[in-house]
Amino acid sequence: MISGTRLPSLDLGVIGNASAAALVDRRASIVWMCAPRMDGDPIFCRLLDDAEEGGSWSVAMDDVAACEQRYLRNTAVLETIQSDPDGNRLRITDFAPRFKALGRIFRPQTIIRIVEPLEGSPRVRVSLQPRYGYGAHRPDTTRGTNHIRFILGDQVMRLTTDAPVEFVQRGTPFLVDRPYAFILGADERLEQAPMTVARSFLEGTVAYWQEWVRYLSVPIDFQDVVIRSAITLKLCSHEETGGIVAALTTSIPEYGRSGRTWDYRFCWLRDSYFTVKALNLLGATKTMEDYLGYVSNVAAGLPDGYLQPLFGLGLERRLDETTVDTLPGYRGHGPVRSGNAAYAQVQNDGYGSVILA
Questions:
Q1: Residue ranges per domain, the chain?
Q2: Does residue 1 register a pLDDT over 50?
Q3: pLDDT at residue 342 is higher than 80
Q4: C-beta neighbour count of 299 within 10 angstroms
Q5: 3-state secondary structure of 286
Q6: pLDDT(5) > 60
Q7: Model's pTM, two decimal places?
């Protein structure tokens, strides 16, 4: 049986849609997600906090004995299968919706989880514990028949589900005797039943990613690794503006007790060039087109023509670096930082990176 206090791990899966992104550990706990953008306040911040009780979204059987995890082939859909010592098994399917609709790409700031029984009579505990202010504050909540609203400072998120809301709100274990859907996103009503929406969005998302992969020019060698890398790079793009983050996280230490814990959730001109180049080599040129639009907007807003090394996803120029004292850091290796003072450095390779892109 898997038990005891669990330290955060970097053995993580990533789900996303080029608008939202979340990191999922081997036990199907979402331990990192920022909102409303990838460089925003982490509503799930367990990755940088040793405390068990908050800043995550866990879905777990009471006596988990084993976990198996995989991506659905050629997609950004993650599947975790949990089993207990009595042979009960369930499946958790995690994804962020992304598909074509009404002549555009539909990519809401939404995470969907489908929990379904596979064998026996599994019981599950769903613990949804978002935070805001970099882990400092618990949200106020209100609930309805099929939803819970989380008031996270100046933003409100809503969980809509067909599971018993009281059990979810209290973290009470319950029997998974049929599939349940959990949809976390904007504070908006669903027009259809949660499972109907979840199944429809899952089907569309799987079809989108498999079509996207089908048109990649993938080399014969190491195809699975290349495809997974391409999808991961795509998830680091913020399509609304065209910016590309260097990483989805902040404050992961370069090595233990180094103090080198930088915030990389910004668009570095140099790093973005390498992302664009890698995807271009595979024939995925849309990211380059979006990025060039981003760079054009950056350049148009520079009165002095100076390209600093990095910008915010919304073209922000000032990215003041502050130390966050409400989170201890990954496995206690702090400090945790928000912002990056490198924006004020002189790194002239940025001009070449833009030209090459």
A1: 13-214, 223-356
A2: no
A3: yes
A4: 11
A5: helix
A6: no
A7: 0.95
